[in-house]
User: Fold these one by one.
Assistant:
Number 1:
Amino acid sequence: MSALENAASGGDFLSAGARHWVRFALRRTGQLLVSLWVLITAAFAMIHLIPGDPVRSSLGLTASQELVETTRQNLGLNDPLPLQYWHFLQGLVTGDLGMSITSRLPVAEIVATRFAATAQLALSAFALSVVVAVPIGVAVAVRTRQGRGRVLDLGFAGTSVVLGSIPDFLIGVILVWIFSVSLHLLPVGGRTGLSSYILPVLSLAVGPAAILSRIVRVEMLSVLEADYVRTARAKRLSATRIHLGHALPNAVTASLTLGGLMLSGMVAATVLVETVFAWPGLGSTIVQAILVKDYPLVQGVVLVYGCGVLLVNTLVDVAMTILDPRSAVIR
Amino acid sequence: MDSLKRVLRTPLGVGALSMLGLVFLLAIFAPLLWGEAASETDTAHLLAPPSAEHWVGTDSLGRDLWLRTLVATRLTVLLALGATALGVLLGILLGSAPALLGRRIGRFVTAAVNILVAFPGLLLCLFFAVIFGVGEVGAVFAIGLAGAPTFARLCHTLVAGVQERDFVTASRIAGRSRAYVLFKHILPNIAEPLVVQATIGAGSCLLTFSGLSFLGLGVQSPAFDWGRLMNEGLNRIYLNPLAALAPGLLVITAGLAFNLTGEAIARAFNVETSGSWVTATAAARTAARKVPAAFSAANTVPREVLRVTDLQVGFPGSNPVRGVSFDLRPGEALGIVGESGAGKSLTGLAIAQLIEPPGQVDGEITFLGMPLRPDGGEDQRKLLGTSMALIFQDPMSSFNPARRIGEQLAEISRVHQGMNRRAAWERAVDRLRAVRISDPQRRAGQHPFEFSGGMRQRAMIGMGLMAAPKLLIADEPTTSLDVTVQQQVLDLIDSVREEEQVALILISHDLTLVAERCERILVMYAGRVVEDIPASALAVAQHPYTRLLLAAVPTLATDLDSPLAVIPGSQPDPSTQFSGCAFAPRCPLADDICRTREPLLRNAIPPIDDTRKKPGLGITLKTSRMRLELNLGGKPGSPVHTGQVACWHKGEPLPAPTLIDDDLPDETLAGVGR
Amino acid sequence: MSTLRFENITVRFGSVTAVNDVTLEVPNGAVVGLVGESGSGKTTLARAAVGLAPMQVGRVLLDGVPVSRHGPARQLQMVFQDPYSSLDPRMRIGDTIAEALPEVARAEREGQVNRLLELVHLNPARAKDYPARLSGGQRQRVAIARALAARPAVLVADEITSALDVSIQGSILNLVRTLQRELGLTMLFISHNLAVLRYVAQRVAVMKDGGIVEEGPTAQVLGTPRDPYTKELLAAIPGR
């Protein structure tokens, strides 16, 4: 409330709205920095939290003691911890994420070549699920409010629960079986052109779309009960205007928080879906890296994934503040 | 076990629980029945496709894949439950830490949880999988730890919700420890949502675990769970799709079983709180009796603004408005007074045609000569949009939070008067100025949250003035405002009425406030008008309810030596059916006639020269008379009741108020739904 | 019962000063009314008394002895505004009242609870009921009984009638007056309604923007108000 009162008492050179923005920007940046620090430190600590000698377990029991020693030396694992941390941070600033143990290529290079494939996948799936889920959620809400349309309500609830409960990699397997194995319409895997995008994007989008449409429906229903929708009805606006002009923006704002979680969840879900479709992205990279214990590579990919998630979350908060300026004050 | 019964009462509950039961039965018995058969190698049928003998085919060692899938249930379910238990336990610990350890440590824990929760579970899971290593134990820890932040956040939200409530504070003030409060008050009140979330959490743990095993990071050979089997099956999807799909199907089934069970539990407990409204039958509605029109044409000016005849509002299972009739002249101010649940707000909403299905409105409403109906066409919409203005109780929630105040005002002129964006905006600014909002140009560009409560209520009035209103319906317009602001808003309404000749319906629970602002008052009780009285005649009100209501509320003139009047019991619920007078159970004058025959609105009894001389007259009348003299600026002389009263004992003296206990044995909950 | 004294109390939340250097005395056996609009700091002052709001400056004294600044103090009990939030829906009302009793033998407990229920004019058989079976007025009586169970030196009542329907308010105010007369209750009675305070309080303090602008015997403050804000408040009462 203090922000509100200060702002309402009149700005000297900044308008009230601008003050909210400044406060919001400061707080949000602070939050982002803390999260980023936690992420970086966790990625650094990961290698040291692994029981035993990570280099030995990575190179296998057959590797000579000398090789293990040189690798340790190269990775800087023999330095004192604070110094290692310092080097790690220095490396991050200069874009040096270390060397992959197995391929002996710079991690930054591997990540750079694979990043685009994953980002494309996650973003197209997100766009698809929003485009499908929001209209469905709104339409179902309008038709089922206050106990109307019981059949539609039940049908929608059933379908969305079922679709939302199937993990994306399983949807992937089922889609492969239908479209590749049985119908021979689409490629089973790889990244070989536009048609190869269809199945991975679909498998990523179906579950979140089902969940998002449920959320949009619930939010829309509660918004339709709000006092200001009653005000809009008292203004005798048409149903379309009330639903799209007054209710939808608020319902979407409320759904956005979850939409953001969904998008960052999608970023993570690429790990599984990429494995199903042999998609040459970060997901399949990290799985392989974990299996062969290539820890520097794991570290690098975790960092990239984490940063992606933080970026998404920040963007969602900014979008939310634009759509609903009140949230900048309240939160 | 009561709760189990409640879940089983719905088809969803029965279906979900039987599915879950099946999964658990498989988990227990499949390894016992087929454990050995599932590891038997059949070298004659290596990598066989599905056949009558091997329904899903065999693997590279010739083992039957269907049996292996069934046997894998136990490991899958056990691992999922283990991870869930770990996550839920950690989550509850972290989530209730603020309640247990106090503000400072709590804030730190909450901040940490908030950072972790921003990262998707699967990512955390991979992170922990690296640390704990590939394998089933590592995966249990990884999934459990990864799920903990989400659960902690949820738990924290729930705990915080209960913690805010006064009974927790009261317990703390009574000297109870934090731990006592947590276990005795907080946890019991959040048990159900926690169970629901844990159940759904178990479902997602199962899916995540299958995912990890599918990636090769979970269960390792020779052990096998569904994820592992899918992993092995995927490589041969062209040759034998069932090898991957069969375990996949079971994963979906089990995941659904957990999710649906959670859903069913959630619904079972929601139904308890809000379901009765929807499911109750509409049968009760028909019983509502008709009350004749309150006013004859004789004493009305030819063109009344509004005429309401036998208005009834019904919802399935209840009829909160049971026959209201009145009419309203141009510029007249009418107050509608009653306790919560009397039907006064619904009367206002019904007049404004804002009752939505399943609510149903009967009776005739004529506004400016046009009969209104729920499905009224474009003409009606335009008429109401320009000529009828509404103000609601809560100015905080009555404006759309996402849009600028100016836009929300301008919308009326753009939609109903065909103004362009600029002209409508100018009009909005002008109207904000008219309701005395300073710097209207700047204010119009602001969002509702930047307005104070009083300012919002003014803006609301300004919105009503965008066109040329003939009727203003104000439903408790000042109840949520401070007294000094209240006064300003009511003054504003008064001046608008005067300047623009607007009729007013002021709905309030406050008889004194209404008496000050209105010329005429309708007193409502249990959905009916019990007294229709000129404001100046309140002192000689003839309905016992009106008189008791006046005497129950202290004013600056209340006699300090006698107790306030008490109306024992509470107003009947809108769903109750009663014969006779609805007020009879609480009325000190009630007799057998009151309890059997319903009194209709009849003209008030002629005034008596000096009411004070009537024997046995209680303090009630004296009190109101003192207030009245204040109202009239101390003008002497007997006020005259020219309205109507629905009472068999109208005007009879009331017994002097005593300290009556409101602890009646058959008292039902007052119509206060929270 | 004893005298409650607020001495130079200041409460800040972040940069907002909710209560600013307030000194107020509630004499033994008296009901002192505290009036003010929302945001004036009256509720915060009450919460500071029972240890629920952090005091930056000042002390709360009971008969000259400081009340602990950290954590709740049993000698001060509070009754809240919303009777629907102040009783645990999962606890029988008898247990709710018993919870506030000082350590007593189990056998004695029931008798004490019954006595308290009778004191607030409720049927002792109600002890077995859950709050859902009680009306708003009855719940508020239970809340008063719970507060009395702790044998407080002073009772703080925060807007205890404003969430109730008008027909029930009177019975709670009557109860407050009876209890005060019979038990010699010392009480800080907070309300935004001057007419209510006039009916129950011997003295009235008017609060605005975190400070007390006027304090004195009720008749004097209402009859010949000195502060312009008090005059404004009085003028705003409908029916005047």
Note: Residues 107-330 of chain A form a domain with the MetI-like fold fold (CATH 1.10.3720.10).
Number 2:
Amino acid sequence: MWFRGIRRRKAMLEADGVGTPDPARAGDVRMFRDLSRLVRDAAVPDATAVPPFDECWAGVERRLREPEPEAGTALRGLRGLLERRPVLVLAPVGAMVLAAVIGVLWWTRPALPSNQCFVDSYDVESGTVLIDQDPDRPERPTVIWHEADSQEEEG
Amino acid sequence: MDARRLGSCGRAAVLVFLVVAGALSIAPRRASADPLVRVRVIVIHAKKSPPFLHEQVKPLWETLRKTFGDRFASYDLVSSTEREVARGGRVEVPMPDGGTFAVVYRGVAQDDRFLKLSIEHGTLKSRVRIRDGGLFFQAGKRWQGGVLIVGVRASTVSR
């Protein structure tokens, strides 16, 4: 069966002129093949071709190699701003310097002596005792006043 | 079995070492908890007038002005005494009116921030706590047209 099928196919091809030694028909067949190839190529151009990876990578590489902004660009911008509108540069710089000076003065200020005192108890046979102190001002010494009821000057 | 016994002996030795080390570390701290203190007692005769400031009182001028305001204008020095005392030490100063002013150093307060002192002047007895290097005054005794002011300053002595 299978053999018979092959023979029939071969006979059909021979009827179409394929594989026949006739040169006139072979030329027609060749022209027809060329025409078919042209039509196929025009309909699906490079359908099975590999994408141009090299060209893609070249684009990426070109982007990677783009020159970085120069370090002096910001400085040049600042200089330009200083020439055009000096207040915008000098005001913040002055504020920072002032803040630094205030900070240094604050940290290096002499500490006030602490005369903080707590009078835990007092005992007196006569007279009046008055504790004079200001809790909000620990540098001010406490005074323990003692005045006798009828104090007479001595000496 | 021997290894186990050795292990328990090691643990016991470490425990004993830690207890002894802890005790030794606490002991000297207890002993040095109350350092020597330098007590200065300055007796000033203050009057309303005439304006005067004794040479040795000049360093205290700002403090006196802030403390007593314009109550006095004349500050004359009667005496100045300075002594180093240990805990329980007493500094006695004779007063011009015949009495004595005494300061007793009672050690360092528990929070280590204050020095504990007692003062005795006539019938007045008081207990105070002051900062290391702090100053306080006791005043009120009238004498020769003015008032006796006693300033007490105490500061620890670094050994």
Note: Chain A has a mean pLDDT of 80.
Number 3:
Amino acid sequence: MPRPLEPVGNASRIGLGIAFFVLFVAGWAIATLGGFVSATFLADPLTMLADGWTLLTRFGFAGDIAITVWRVVGGFVLAAAVAVPVGILMGAYKPVEAFLEPFVSFARYLPASAFVPLLILWAGIGETQKLLVIFIGSVFQIILMVAVAVGQTRRDLVEAAYTLGCGERSVVRRVLVPANAPEIAEILRLVLGWAWTYVIVAELIGSSSGIGHMIIDSQALLATGQMIFGIIVIGLIGLVSDFLFKAANRALFPWKLA
Amino acid sequence: MSKLLIEGVSRVFPGVHGGAPTRALEPISLSVAANDFIAILGPSGCGKSTLLRIVAGLDRPTSGRVLLDGRAVQGPGADRGMVFQSYTLFPWLTVAQNIAFGLRERGVPETDRQAIVAQYVERVGLKGFERHWPRQLSGGMQQRTAIARALANNPEIMLLDEPFGALDTQTRSLMQELLLDIWERERKTVLFVTHDIEEAIFLASRVVVMSARPGRIKSDVPIDLPHPRHYTMKTTADFSALKARLTEEIRVEVLAAGAH
């Protein structure tokens, strides 16, 4: 048995990570191919792969994937562009925080999915509506988390900057922002994960394209293989975007890891 | 004319949750001559750090005022360089970038900046570490960088708040020698807060002893040991006599603090 907090080697880390995926698929295969679960409710891994292949080759599923990725990224970038500056201002300036914090805390609990019918009414079923769902779902979360991070900046670093001649504005620009940049990047990575749930919800209702649309279409046909394939694709994209985010963070903030 | 004038500065912290307010500093007056190295010595919690923070402009006095070159201190500024007890290097900047921080704020051109940084890197013995991140450095190296960062800004006065307090004894005495060496060369006016008696005598030309809370100035002892000072001085009779005297003064205060 390993001792608590003892680090694990790189090779065994990757090995262990893959092992669970293998175990998971094996369990799934035994349950379905072994006949323990009816194929009506859960497709087996092989059917899932075959259905996925059909989706990609015959039904243009790649286009659905592309449109969904575009929606997530678009809505998320809009939310981040608004929320990061607002969050920094809130964390840095207490009157701004006092002004916005109660409302943002309230708005944060409004479920993005509940806005879908309302947004269809306002913005129709076009792309604007999809982007708005993701925007509403992400923006308040990012604002609040960035504000908390900036508000917790080490006071002694701020004081050191003042004694080195910084004014109020340059303390924000030269201390508060760079000190919290890695944490802000981490917050964005986390919220991007949540944005994926919002996009699927937005696509389940009133949509004619996207991964979510394909899943709801497949439900009508009881094509569980296709539904699972769609879900797995979302998971894989999430995994890749997570990996890219982490790699970017390592490249941008070498001082964190040195 | 004195470089720094502290006039009747007191500090009362308001009571927490309706408790009684804390009197951290009784009105204190102190005059610091240019090029002087003053150590403020006192037991923990005597308000010596509060006094230094008021001089730095990071805290406001309840009464009284601080004058630097005849001008009243209104807030923190680049004319008073500070080195803190905690490690306050900016972790996202390299050693060289940390040292250049104040210069950049003032808009000193890149080439001048590099020359000044190189000079102070050399002076605090960090050649070869310019591109290191703070977290790759030992505590002593971090504090040397912090000293270089404050000096590079060419302040009128240096304020040091127990800068070696978190270091081990060996590193600490090496750092004392380094600081002394810099002071003997530059003769910058220094206000140095410490609770270490030996450190105060070794470094300072004047030791101001503070009483237990509420802090007052208890005595003001000139240290007439010759310069340049060498660490072997710590074993001389003169040094020991001063140490015995200050130890006695501080001891009374520590006991008084304990009696509260």
Note: The interface with chain B takes residues 154, 156-157, 159-166, 170, 174-175, 178-179, 181, 253-256, 258 of chain A (CB under 8 Å).
Number 4:
Amino acid sequence: MTLTKRIIPCLDVKDGRVVKGIQFVQLRDAGDPVELARFYDQQGADELVFLDISASVEGRKTMVEVVKAVASQLAIPFTVGGGINTLEDMKKILRAGADKVSLNTAAVENPGLIKQGADFFGSQCIVVAIDAKFDPDIDTWRVYTHGGRKATEKTVLDWAREAAELGAGEILLTSMDSDGEKNGFDLKLTKAVSEAVTIPVIASGGAGNAEHFAQAFEKGKADAALAASIFHYKETSVQEVKSYLREKGVTVR
Amino acid sequence: MIGIVDYGMGNLFSVSKALERLHADYLITSDKHKLLAADALILPGVGAFRDAMDQLPADTIQQFAASGKPLLGICLGMQLLFESSEENGFTKGLGLLPGSVRRFPGKTNDGTAYKVPHMGWNRLEFIQDSPLLTNLEEDYVYFVHSYFVSAENSPVTLAKTDYHEQVAAVVGRDHIFGMQFHPEKSSKLGMALLGNFLKIAAERKAVR
């Protein structure tokens, strides 16, 4: 079996521009989604995720233009998440050239949306993003929505299983406990979810170095791993991570 | 002119943008006459087999195929070229290539579970010479699918990949071709494969 483990840089987009301190001096325009996408493509990124953090209707419309521009330049797959609440929203983004849409809060509030999307576009287009935080009171991870601001009654393992049954093609799993800490992915969480479902799981939150990626794949049983700041701040590169993984015997492209 | 079959499904945009990067003229249309007039057709596809068969101008595509002009199915579009699929129960396909489409069992013979869909970059292994594979080297391409055509004993398999099953990755017979992965999303090798298809289309046109 030669399926490779995927490395996925994530870009936050607001009103058509990539935000969150990006340190790419060699680019003409460090906030241009297309330039950054091309940069990561050249580095060997297997996929990209664009998270639309625009708060306005105008910003969302702009995202469709961004998707078109990226799709016209790039020959690798990309996912768009953020603000996708209806089948219509999914249509707009996918028709503009995105390969997958990522659903988070909207799916928790209306799980039927997953099935709608999967029935219409096929499971492979539907990523369910889960923000997870450990809750000692229930001794398991709880699902959070609204960008991590709102706790729900759902446990992560149950929700992951439900999402998969409804037709999600992939789970994008972010550990709120690890996110931003750079101490590594939450391996216990990642492994638990990866073993609970039969669809691919993308580990997210906590990447600080190349070794963390190896751990996510070997101990966390992740199928892919996503990171933002360590790539944006050039603490490491996709190339470096991949050559480290190759040394460790992890199959990468 | 390359015709891209628009039947309300499939990622037309990414396929068309890939053709633009290759400087090919194309037309996205559902119009029967325009499709039949094209030098070659691309049948894209994302979604479910039965919905696609319901939406598809099947007669037009079969008529086009009978004319001897090149046809390329991509992903679900490749699966549609075969005789049938077990997706959502038994559904008849276009029947342009022999074989049927089935779901990854999600379990190996010894009972070990594996993930479905087959999603990500996997390596092609070339197994038959074809103008589609001329001057290309085996490399990784991007797959996303839960259903597949078995490469075992299939005379139309040109390249395969291994995902717990022997998966037909590039198929072809005469002027009918299919790719299970997304060439338009498969970096250099994907673009080169599309380039070869365009060459085949140009050569056929010159002969006609």
Note: The mean pLDDT of chain B is 94.
